[in-house]
What does this fold into?
Amino acid sequence: MPLILSRRHLLQLAGMTLPCMALAEAPSAPTNLGQRLDAIGSRYFEDSLRLSPLMGSELMGGERFEDKLEIEIAPAHQRQQKALQRRLLRELASLPQAQLDAQQTLSLQVLRQQAQQRLEEQAFPAALLPIDHYGGMPVTLAQMASGQGTQALNTPRQYRHFLQRLARLPAWNAQAMVNMREGMRSGVVQSRALIEQALLTLQPLASAPLDQHPYAQPLRQFPASFSAAERADLSRRYEREIRSRLLPSMQSLLRFLREDYLPRTRASAGLGGLPNGAAWYAQRIRAATSTRMDAQSIHALGLREVARIRAEMGKIHAGFGGKGSLTEFLREQPMRPEYRPFKSDQEVLDAYARINAQVLAALPRLFHRGPKAALEIRAEPEISKATASAHYMSPAVDGSRPGVFFEVIMDPREISTSGMTSLFLHEGQPGHHFQIALQQELPLPDYRRYSSNEAYVEGWALYAETLGYEMGLYEDPMVRLGHLSADLHRAVRLVTDTGLHALGWTREQSMQYMQETEGLDAAEARRATERYMAWPAQALAYKIGQLKILELRERARKRLGERFSYADFHALVLEDGALPLDLLEAKIDSWLQARAPA
It folds into this structure.
């Protein structure tokens, strides 16, 4: 998944002491209809970045946003966001839509759906749940302190900018506690298991000695170009801020979570256990899948996909002798010593580099072009290993940061070679890197170049895993088993996510299903389940998107026959950026109608 900053945290960001931000002044009205539309979209995009400066850093790079931190969970900020979405809808409604050309119509539809979705989200009290097992904003900033992500730490100025961001954390923590107290009064509280894990995740931020504190990471990795005076000055500034404000604030937050909030948490695992939870989950499904599917139909689809994929796995099991149950085979075979050769993190990263070389050699057969931005492969920083999954971080548009595939290496001896190829195709190329980095390079207005849609983005990445067959990368039955295991995991998500949030499943019930169906161990099943608990419906996007793209490809293959080209189809899917699935389907059907009338 692209945990660019992580949309999970971008929903939780910051602002209690900030005054209300003024939205951008409306530009003088252009006369050309396309220019009017682009002016509306550009103003909306600009205001969105100003209200979400962490997103600004993630997308744009550079210094413009790197010293800013908005308190996005604050009521004043929520009101500004609502006003922004309503303004956009009013401005779009003022356009004579019948006069727009096809590309302009697509832009208008993308903008309108974004605003409508964000207004729907604001009808539910997500801001009252600012902390989950990932740790919220305190952990986001600790990850940024590594300098390996969206926060560049290469100059004294950048060090000072990051310190200004850190200085906003006490305000975020204070607002989070205000929100959680409101949640306690209204019955909108987090699941107990997530807060128990959050306490473990956040504890180092409240108690680590200064020379080991995650927020002091920049002081332990000064660039060689810094003078002694600059190092001394920055050390004093960071140490003073951490000692006098950040540590007391984190200690207060931990004390509140442990003593006040934890006793009031709920036993239920899903949104169904909260007031108006069924409607809330239905909204999350619409946002994550860009469809009108309901939880029951998705659950049934998941069960069918699980049965189909396990049948394919059964063939591989039979090829290895068929001893024991399929689940035992899935649990034990990838952990055999011959599939776990690594002794160091670097050996794991080197193996991914070799996979990348194979992929690069095969890509020209399937794609007309790829992104210009480089892709790097890195190990996940220590602070976030316990709760992170492998993920992708997009490049900065200014070229200051490449795209990065982060692998979580808890113990290199536990990494199995069987799943590495499929994972790389998803998080690296032609998955997230091809789609996200390439979208940033498209000749589209910024509000389209940086738009996103969960089902499209994750659906494309899961679809990219299937291209391993076309590249000849799954000839080895164990590598093919690794791919099928990854596909099974996404099918299981359809079952467990809907089970947790709509069908009343417990955390333990979800874990048991994963262990019995996928062969996961208890710790893996717990991490996966808690992710779905904390991020309702997001896990549905993968399979729903993948299946739609596969369906559209098969439709194109049947209609075009010998004229079908993978490269042409992929260009068609990628050339307009991340589209909601209904718009993507309409676009491809229109293209097919023009090329191969029924």
